[in-house]
Every structure is written in C-alpha cells, then in structure tokens.
Amino acid sequence: MGFNNMSDSRALVWFRNDLRIQDNPALYHARTEHQQVVGLYHCTPLQWDNHQIGDNKRGFITECVASLKQDLERLNVPLITKIGEDYNSSVDQVIRLCAELNIKHLYLNRELEVNEQIRDQLIKKACFEYGVTCYIFNDQTLLEPGSILTHSKDYYRVFTPFKNAVLKRLQASSIEPLGTPQPAQPLPLKMQLKVKQISDALPKNTQSCSYSWVAGEKEAQRRLNDFIENRIQDYDAMRDLPLQDITSRLSPYLAAGCISPRQCYRAADNANQVMGGDNQGVHTWINEIIWREFYRHLVVGFPGVCKGEAFNPSYSNIPWRKAPNDFLAWCNGETGYPIVDAAMKQLVNEGWMHNRLRMVTAMFLTKHLLIDWRLGELFFLEHLIDADFAANNGGWQWSASTGADAAPYFRIFNPTRQSQRFDCDGKFIKKFLPQLGELSSKSIHQPTPFEAQAAGYQLPIVEHKFATDRAKQTFKSALNDTPLTMEHAV
C-alpha cells in the first residue's frame, strides 16, 4: 500500500497483557499496514494497587517487558516504557506520545474486565478527538466474547454446553495463530534518539519470587513445547498430583500474554492428531484451556463479577463469619490440616499453587471456616505470579458455590481425604512442612494431638464434621431465606 506522508506510515502499538511478538494481532496488523512501528508499555502502579496485584506478578511483568523489548529490537520496533499512576494517565500518555511522534494510528488488543473496558472506551474517544485512528483486536480468548451464545442469545452459565459450542466452532473454523511480523523499517535516527530520551526505567522489585520464573516469550514457548512433547499424554492421569511435574506451568505466561490461548490450543490439537486423534491427556488439557475461556466470557457477559458480586444472586446473603484469627491462620498455613497448610506455604514461598490445591484451600476457607470468598480471592491475587482476575474469580466462586456451574454447596472437599488421595506418601506435605518429616505416610495427613505437639505443629482450628454441617446449614438457610440458629451462626 502507498502512504501520503510519514505519519501515515508509522503506527503505535500499545502493549498491555500481550507481551509477545508471535500471534499478537495488534503488532501483526500494525506491521502489515505500516512501514514503521513504535511500541509502548505503560506501567500503572496505582492501578495495580487497586487491583490487589502483588510483588510477585509485578516483578514478573517487569521482567517480561524487558524480554519483550529485546524481541522487538530484532523487528526494528523500539519499545517505550512509561510510568504513570492509573488508567486515566495511560490514556493521556498515549495521546501525548502520538502527538510527540507524529503518529496517527494506534493498535491495541482488547482487555475484558470492566475497568479495562472503560479505559479502552476513553482511549477510543480521545483518539477520535485528536484525529488518531484506533484499531482494537480480540486477543485474550479463542473466540470473541459474545460470539458463543445460547439459543436464547444469552451467555452460557454452564460449562459443558459452552465447551461443546466452543469445540464445534473451533473444529469448523480451524483457528491458526498469527506468525511473527516481518521487521519494520528503522525509525529515522533523530526519532530513535527521541524515543530513547522519553522512555522511563521501570521500577525494580526486589521482594518478589519472580526470579525463580524465567520471564518472556521464549521461555513460554519452551515450556509449551516441552509439555506437548513429554507430558501432555499423561496429563489426565497425573494432573492432580501436586508434587509431580506434569502440569504445563504456563499460567504466568498466559496471564502476562507471553503466549496466547490460540498457540496453546493449536499445539495441543496438532499433538492430538499425531497421537491418533483421541488422546485423553490432550482432551483434558484442552478442557482446561476452555475453562479459562469460559471465565473470560463470563466477565464480559456478567460484569458484576468484576465489582465483587456473587455470580449467583441466590448466594448474595450468605452470613460469612468475621473471624480474623481464623483467616490469618489460613493465610499463614497454620490451620492444623497439613495439605491446606503445605499448599498455603507453597503459595507464599513460590507465588504459585497447584490447581487441585487451589480448590482444596479455597473450599476450606469458604466451607470449613465459612469466611467470605472475596477475602481469599484478594489474598491469592496479592501472591500469585499468575494472578489473573477472570480465572481467579471464577475458581474462587466455583469453590464457594456462588459462581457459574459451581460445586454444589453440599459437596465439600474433605481435606484429609484429598491429601490421602493426591499426596498419598506425604512428600508434598513434607516439602513445605518439614516439621512433619518424621511422620509416617499414614499419620502425616492427620497427625494425632500427640504427634502434632511433638512436631510443634498446630492442632486443627476447626473439626471437619462440625464445619461441614455448619456450612451446609448456613447455605441452605440462605437459599431458603430462613434465620440461622445460634449454634450454626457462631
């Protein structure tokens, strides 16, 4: 295509949770349509504070941005990094950069949560006022939210029919990830110097555990390839064992956008064809990708979940206990239930937790302790290196029985049985609770009072049967809108 002037040949790509060069729609189309491309990443610490994003993810994002900058240099695309406060400052910064660099075309990938949608409406309005053309692409989902609806034209509320509809569409459309764009034309030397001068140094975070996770797109691709080649075939049988290195551990990279769900799905589907088309491990992992998709569609279809609302309004009046000491014991891994405590130690020490244990710990907080799921949701966001609002909120509401297609309130995990089933020899527990290292594989799941005292370990802060009976009665009464007896309200 031809260009009338240099401002038409130059585009700005605003990177957010899409920190990669492969299969990046905004970058790909900006480069396809324009000779010169400039990238921007705008850091918003105040917005991170408001969203409860903790040091682990902040440190990881900073490292991923540094990796992205190196990757973009190979494409002759300089990345400007700026620091502001919140999303309003992001909008101001984008418009200012377009003016400073004489850019008339802005490319970005859509984000789905309420605050992010409001921000993107503001940037569209500002672009219109200042004569900048704004192009927005779908990136965070396999299929555009709103394109998969029920027969009554509503968003799906139940996972299985949603999954079936998604798989049918994927099989019919054969989604292929976009490749890496061709290198752009270098900016004029004067413009290159200007870009370097206006770029800020992003804050260093020395208190996070992100150093134990290699950042960036190359590592994401390496992990995906390794998982597909060596472990996906056993995923169905082994995925619930917390000490086995069977899961992909791609969640931090998906959350930061170092890899896309399209790339994950295509790699898994291709592997399935090689394996004969019916590998249960592949099917199960694709199911997990679609659960992630499900929660993202729900965020768009039911924006109240972004405002702290229960997805199922029938559970809006649960009388959650105000029990700060019990909540602190849960946070610190001092509940007296070894599998719960070991999992919480893993979260705090590694910034990550095995998915089976996320369900166990979340259900313990909401059912055994009857503490509001929103407190646990925020604690996870503060510590997880893969902190992702839609997936985290969906998982917590599933465990608390307040969400879409959630676990029924009367089905409550017995943490001791979960431990015996998925950590039968207690090796995971011993890794994070070394004081229990001398206990037998039988005793370690539920130490006797004598064994706990000898090991310096906490006695259970609540008895299992009492806790589950209390939870069932509380949920049942809330659903029936009947008052609780004092026995169950304690």
Give a structural overview.
By secondary structure, this protein is mainly alpha-helical. The protein folds into 3 domains: 1-139, HUPs (Rossmann fold, 3-Layer(aba) Sandwich), CATH 3.40.50; 140-176 and 218-301, Alpha Horseshoe (Serine Threonine Protein Phosphatase 5, Tetratricopeptide repeat); 313-489, DNA Cyclobutane Dipyrimidine Photolyase, subunit A, domain 3 (Orthogonal Bundle). Helices cover 51% and strands 6% of the residues. It is built from 22 helices and 5 strands. Strands 3-2-1-4-5 form a 5-stranded parallel beta sheet, sandwiched between helices.
| Strand neighbour order, sheet with most strands | 3-2-1-4-5
Radius of gyration: 24 Å
User: What about the largest sheet?
Assistant: 5 strands, parallel
- How do the helices and strands follow one another from N- to C-terminus? EHEHHEHEHEHHHHHHHHHHHHHHHHH
- Point out poorly predicted stretches: 1-7, 483-490
Briefly note the structural class of the backbone: mainly alpha
CATH topology name of the largest domain, in short, is DNA Cyclobutane Dipyrimidine Photolyase, subunit A, domain 3
- Into how many domains do the coordinates divide? 3
Mean pLDDT: 93
| Strand residue content | 5-15%
Percent range of helical residues: 40-55%
> Which architecture of the largest domain does the CATH hierarchy give at level 2?
Orthogonal Bundle
Beginning-to-end CA distance, first to last residue: 71 Å
The level-1 CATH class of the largest domain = Mainly Alpha
**Helix count, per DSSP?**
22
Number of strands: 5
Question: Which word captures the global form?
Answer: globular
- Within CATH, the superfamily of the largest domain carries the name DNA Cyclobutane Dipyrimidine Photolyase, subunit A, domain 3
